[in-house]
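As agreed, record minuted below.
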Amino acid sequence: MKTALKSQTQFDIEEATIAGVRAAIRNDTLTVRQLVQEYLDRIAAYDRHGPRINSIIRLNPEALADADRIDAVAAASSRQKIGPLCGVPVLVKDNIETKGLATTAGSPLLKDNVPQDDAFIVKKLREAGAIILAKTNLHELASGGETVSTLIGQTLNPYDLSRTPGGSSGGTAAGIAANLGLLGIGSDGVNSIRSPASANNLVGLRPTMGLISRTGLIPCGLTHDTIGPITRTVTDTAILLDVIAGYDREDPSTHEASAHIPPTYTSFLDRDGMKGARIGILTHFFGHKPQHQPVNSVMQKALAILEQQGAALVAIDDPINPDELLTSTLVHHYEMAQDLDAYLAKLPPNIMVRSLADIAASGLVHPSVAGTLSTAMELGAKKIIYRERLQRQAALRHRLLDLMARHRIDALAFPHQRRLVVPIGETQSERNGVLASATGFPSIAVPAGFSAPGPDAPLGVPVGIEFLGRPFSEAVLIRLAYAAEQAIQARMAPHTTPALG
């Protein structure tokens, strides 16, 4: 059964929110089919044509049929008893399994990897009424920061088409920024949710390790890998987190999650959340050269606004060095062969690659990740160095908790990137997301503002501020991020993807 479209929509899809969609469906001014079709029209206009953002690997061919089913259920219940994500179109990074849709991680070697079941969080999304609209591009095998894959190539930043969208979840972020979907799901190994959130003027949450299941994720290294939201607003992140957080018996890391989840994260959306908060500013996470000035200028203005909102800004001069952490604490390259091989071994026999070595030897690997794969195969056998790095991670966790206790800090703050997201063709550099990935602590990036406008970026290039908290302090981070978002008011839609006529 197909639900009839309204003769004239009264719903503005640009910058749409969950609350707006729910209200429009409940008030009978919008059908889910109409909403899905509008997003499909925008994808056709802006991802496939026009600026060719190139964020979508594949559309879900059942999206409109799913919309019709939800419309029928909503109509039968007089549109009152609808799920928290009723009819909400979601973009899912293509390293997260979705039933009936190939899950490729951007590699043609996995183009026939069609899961028979959804990843745990995809099941939770569907149960909440969401529609999986499309699978999004990523840096191949989630092993880089520029979002380029052998399968479909380079994703563009909709704010500046000459720049990357960050990565590795850049396809999800570019799509959400350009209003090609309402909610996004990414994965984060080192920077991979917060980097594209920062670069695309979005909210990106890396949760505490163990808050969200990784079952159904193509892994890079399970000590660091996690899944999380990428949205346009903190409110939508809180609603989405209510749906996807929780215990999964197939993922042992989630065994402690239930004890730390509040009835709803939305209860922490407080405009006055900065009043009385103590925010530690990590001074060593700022650059001090001319190329850092665009980011520093945006951050200075944003921090001044937070102070005006009642936050106490505490300069933390502890010499934690993000570049040093990258070279001394991360273990994803030591785990990649083991964890990826275990995933590949479970795939159906029609998938010809069964190991990282098979992928590397295929000759069908994007040049930007070939070196990473070679390194991972070499490091997988170096168990002593691996254990030493795990010990450094434990020491870093203790160091951060002690620092936050001594200074009575609610959260630490810093720019996610010390310099603007790089132009296409360059390698991403000077990102600060390693602090959360090396510790497993939660971290959220929110829009801080834009650099000065330029010929390719009439709005400027987005800059994100990152807040990092203690384990399972997502409620605190949401309170602070929401207060910052409401005070700074930095979110703007990109100029390259305006409303369709």
Notes: The chain has one domain: 18-488. The domain at 18-488 is CATH 3.90.1300.10 (Amidase signature (AS) enzymes). The first helix runs from residue 18 to 26. Residues 1-8 have pLDDT under 50 and may be disordered.
